[in-house]
């Protein structure tokens, strides 16, 4: 099924490329282009550098809505197919197909979010806003990791209390893992951003 999904995605992408490829056809001709000086005519005309790029940008601007529409429909088809695959996998109790269906569903959801959010974000923000957004996101993730570490310590203390109350060895191991996880989370979230930004 994984190979079938790969083949379907690959063939869909190939169809999209052929469908939205350039509509203009270029043929070889024996005529000399205008910008090449002719014999006896040494006058070279000044050409604007963006004369060729305006056609490309107009073509891209015309194709972008079609590509977005078809891309979102293809991703929606993949999501619905993954739901069907996962439903049958749950009925047949096949773990591998459940994993494939879940992965395709999550991937298509993330792709839809990226296709909808990233163009709006890129077109409406400038360099200063992006810098502020990245710094705010980094600070948010650091604070979330600190709160998670505190929660891990509190849960570890509760499980350690259960170990002393019931004398169950698994509770001791779980509390120890929570303490170690809280320490690692605190150290990494404190020093790694500083280390990465200073390099």
UniProtKB/TrEMBL annotation:
Signal peptide: 1-28
Transmembrane segments: 70-91, 103-124, 144-166, 178-196
Keywords: Membrane, Signal, Transmembrane, Transmembrane helix
Presence of the UniProt keyword Membrane in the record: yes
Keyword Lipid metabolism among UniProt keywords: no
Protein name: Yip1 domain-containing protein
Organism: Priestia koreensis
Highest classification ranks of the organism: Bacteria, Bacillati, Bacillota, Bacilli, Bacillales
